Structure formats: structure tokens, C-alpha cells
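Lecture 7 notes: from sequence to structure.
We start with the chain below.
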Amino acid sequence: MSRRARPATVGLLLLATLLAPRAAAGQGQGGRFRDPEDGRLDLSDNLLNQKGFLPVPIVITEPALGYGGGVALTFFSQSFAEGMSESGRFVPPTVYGVAGFYTSDGSYGGGLLLFHPFRHDHFRYLGVLGGASLGLDFYGFDPEGPLAGDPVAYAIEPIFLFQRFQARIKGSDVFVGAHYEYLRTKSTFDVARPDGVPVRDLLVNAAGLGTRLELDTRDNLLDARRGTDLSVQGTWYGPEVGGDDSFGKYEVKGLFYGQPSTRWGYGLRLESDFTTSDAPFFEKPYLDMRGLPAMQYANDLALLGEVEVRYSIDSRWTLVAFGGGGRVSETFGDLGDAPSVGAGGAGIRYLIARKLGLGYGFDLAVGRGGEVALYIQTGAPWK
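Predicted C-alpha cells for the same chain:
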């Protein structure tokens, strides 16, 4: 499978195929959901040929939000099979969507999406508009501070707009792009406002203009086995583009994949995120790893590394073990004295679509607090 397919797009298709009522009927007729090579359950042909209107289930297992779900109503302009060109380069479909979700802690939200590639995928546009009401916990910015073990609950109500334009450089594996973000938020704490949150952060208009450079040689965007994805991104916020205050957000990330043998494979993720000039508390980088609730470990600088090892039991089933660690601090100079935070776990995958190289399964992960979290995985866990 060409690595030009979008992970989110195929993930939506996979969930719909697994859960839609018509899938059960198709299996009863025999053949459609069986791979002719090994006779086992496989959704390759259904995914490759799916197009048009499609309702898609949403499954949420993020510890910070609780368990929940929703539905996305989507429309695909063409099937993945139709997007295969003679040159072997995959041209993804145009996707329109509207979605909504609700979780066990009372969080909810929804939005509109448009993804549109054009000029044979030499250019890509992505637009998202939406809003939400999220119930979260504020842990402060010190992993060993008083709020780390006794967080303060708060609600944040964002309204957001995101637009991104990307261009491929001369048919290469390099994409360069620009994006615009607008976020209006209202935050309300259940008790007195914590000292780490200034009054101005309770009602914020944040608008930013940014750029991104990416080199992507992965063999499969859905679930890579070999290759590298290197990216650098910067976003500058301020009154000049519609925001209240000026600050910056930056990200440097590398994903590295290898397959030393038929059974053994690995992945490595290295990432650094940082902000400048007193970014709002909800915009600060955090350690984003399986086993850690979102935004639990946050500050102006976040640095992390994570490794994943895969062992294939047979041609369909794969065992996964992963682990990593990171640090957060206010400045680069403070990073050496900051405490390390680790997380890890294990999981299992079933190759649900052989022609796409796409696995589906779950991970169980544990972090610093010792609580076990469940993650449903469609394809690679790192995007």
C-alpha cells in the first residue's frame, strides 16, 4: 500500500466497516470479508472500494476525557482503489464530514471537516471548524508539585478554526505548508483559580499563523514498518492575525521505523515541543504518551522519547511492547533538573486489511500514577 493514504481517513472507514450492520450480512454471504490467500477475516477489498456517503462510529478512550463515542457523517469523493495512479502514487479522496461526540465525564463536542487534495495530490487543503465543552483536570506545571497528586477540575469551552495548505516539492517526499489557527476559549475552575493560571487565560482569543516542513519516507502512512518521518513546525500568535496576546509554539519531531527480520520490527519517536512569551495554560506542551492522561505533565518545554517493539506471531497477529519517558520544564536550562516521567505497556494487533498493511487492536498502558489505560488502535499510534 502506498504511504500516501491518510491514516485518519482509513481509520474512519475501518471502524465503519467493523460496526456497520451491513458488514454482518456480507460475512454471512461468505467471501467478501475473507482473504483468498489465507481464508481469514480481511477488509481490504471493502476498504479499497468504499466511496460515497458513510456514517462512521467514533470511539474515545482518552483517560483525560473518559470513555465515550459519537458518530461522523462523511462523504468520500472516490474509493482508494480509484486513487491508485499508474505511477504508483496514491491520490487520496476529497472528504467532507460532520461529527459529534459525548464522553462519560460529560464532555461533548462537534465539528465540520473538509480534506481536499488537488493537482494529483501535489497540493492539499484541510479545514476544520468546531466547538466543544471539555471536563479536564489541571495538574500545574511541576510534576512534583502539590497539584500533581491533587489536580483541580475545570471546564474549557473552545470554539476553533483550523486551515492548512500543503504543497509537495517537485514530486518528492517533501511537503511544505502554511496553516492558520483560531481558538476562542472560556475556562471555569470548580474551585479557586490556581496560582499557575493568570486571569487573562480564563477568556482567550488565540489566533496564529504558522508553517511546516516535512520529509516523509515511510512505506505506509497507515502502519509503517520502514522509513522516516521528520517534521519541523512553528506557529506565531498575536493581534496581527486576530488574537489577544503574542506568543509562539514550536515542534520538532522524528519517527523512525525498521524491520530487521520477518518477525521483529521497531519504531522510535523523538519529539520536542516548546512555547514562548507566556502562552495560555491550555496551549503549553505536554507529554503525549500512552499511559499518561492528556495535559497531565505540561510546561513551556516538553521533551520525550518512546520506543515500540513488534513481534509477529504469524502473518496476521502481532504482539506490541512499548515504553518511553520525558521531561517538562519552564526553560531549556531547567530541563536537566526536571524529574523524568515514564510510561509503557503492551498490546496486540490483527492485520485487518492485508492489502493496506493496516492493523487493528488495543493497547494497555500504565504511567507514573499506576493507573491502567486502554487505547483502541487503528494503524500506527503515532501520527
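Points to note: The chain is about 10% helix and 50% strand. The mean pLDDT is 88.
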